Amino acid sequence: MSTATTQVEPTFEELSREVEAAGLMRPRVGAYAVKIAATLAMLAAGWAAFVIVGDSWWQLAVAAYLGFTFTQIDFIGHDAGHRQIFRTRRPSDLVGYVHGNLLTGVSFGWWVQHHSRHHSYPNHLERDPDILRRQVIFAKEQRAGRPGRVNAFIIAHQSWMFFVLITLEGLRLHLAGFIAAARGALKRHRRTDPAILAVHLAAYAAIVFIALPPALAVAFIAVHQMAFGFYMGLAFAPNHKGLPVRGGQKEELDWLHRQIITSRNLLSSRFTDFMYGGLNYQIEHHLFPSMPRMNLRRARPLVKGFCEQYDIPYVEVTARESYRQVAAHLAKVSGQVRDA
User: Would you tell me how many other CB atoms lie within 10 Å of the CB of residue 188?
Assistant: First the structure.
């Protein structure tokens, strides 16, 4: 009599075969062509409105709209960095540097390096750069590396300060590429990358200060960059914050569990897909970073069913609940620091 064996440990290869069989890893160049054209049309409409409105304080509404559009443009750069649009480097880089460096002033080269490390070690206290570069902390152990009264105030009130600080995220993203270039940290296009950033910065400043009086120009830039940073921060905040963190030199989780238990999905509609650029399917995105964003919705039931089969936590909440969980986690860490 033969003895049947039962698989008790899930493997990424098993899930990957199912996803591949469904055709979800195939490029969607046509769909991306439409998406890129629509997004560029949004950007063109914003700058056209800038010209039409002219010397008027209604420009602040235009600035807010352009902040929203800059984030949508950078969603395309994000996808290019993961080679969701094209599988080869050259066309992916072309899309990435145009949408990042040229159109929004965010270094594509810096971002790819930064974001790749994040995908390898999400929510790792020593290896995830998205945790290391934040002014808030996600575990009380991080407090030792944040001296000073300003940091003490931020950490004590970080449950709400986090949402204030993300208004500066646009500025931080603009500076990151120049800083990386100055430190020699860019692995490729070390001269071209900052040169394109400089072109964007010069053109942006010239357009705004030539078209608007100084006070309105400064106000326009402030609103534009704060809207850009706030939307960008809100888009990325639900993905991992408030979920399990880990530290130490030894990685205790395999790839499959590392990506799933540190990621959070949002209950989604087509509107959510648009607003979050596909990042609302964060679990699927982290498991399959090169999957075109248009396919993430279809991958969700496969991944969720796999997690249910093997009793792996699959976190999925509303957008509002995700922000509540982020704030609650930050408040908990503040309390732990205060008690310590």
Answer: 12
